[in-house]
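Quick review question:
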């Protein structure tokens, strides 16, 4: 499907490092499902795009190991990695260029309430057909996760929110 992209947001080692404030409890639990989703995307010819946040200091400095994509995920030469220093993934990046010709986007990542939400809102406003894989998204607590998913569903009526098993059927 040359018109479909898988966009994975914020899957950076800093979220798994318990030594600092950006640690996201439970981030390890989405790895296996994300790897399965990537395999399906590769088999179906999706473009695969990773969105990574960076700052000029640890832990999100581009050169730090904590800013790298989860080590279990195998990056291929055809994958696109976009680095953004703002909450907007489209601001001063080449994301628009990499989404040229894409009509459908499957989204997963962390944290749901910040980076994922911003991407979904901006992509929705650009009229992409979006599928959010709800159980491959995670944030700092269940209440915030539920609120974010519910609010996206209420404010973006064409957004398709599904669980991984339902998407894979």
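Suggested answer, residue by residue:
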């Amino acid at each position: 499907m040359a018109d479909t992209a898988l966009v994975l947001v914020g899957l950076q080692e800093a979220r798994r490092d318990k030594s600092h404030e950006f640690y996201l409890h439970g981030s390890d639990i989405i790895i296996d499902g994300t790897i399965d989703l990537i395999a399906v995307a590769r088999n179906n010819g999706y473009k695969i795009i990773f969105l990574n946040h960076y700052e000029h200091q640890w832990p999100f400095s581009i050169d730090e190991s904590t800013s790298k994509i989860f080590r279990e995920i195998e990056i291929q030469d055809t994958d696109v990695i976009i680095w953004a220093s703002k909450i907007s993934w489209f601001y001063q990046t080449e994301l628009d260029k990499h989404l040229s010709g894409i009509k459908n986007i499957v989204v997963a990542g962390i944290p749901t309430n910040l980076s994922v939400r911003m991407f979904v809102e901006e992509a929705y406003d650009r009229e992409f057909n979006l599928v959010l894989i709800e159980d491959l998204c995670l944030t700092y607590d269940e209440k915030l996760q539920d609120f974010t998913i519910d609010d996206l569903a209420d404010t973006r009526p064409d957004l398709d929110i599904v669980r991984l098993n339902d998407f894979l059927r």
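Why it works: The two ends are 16 Å apart (CA to CA). The longest strand covers residues 129-137.
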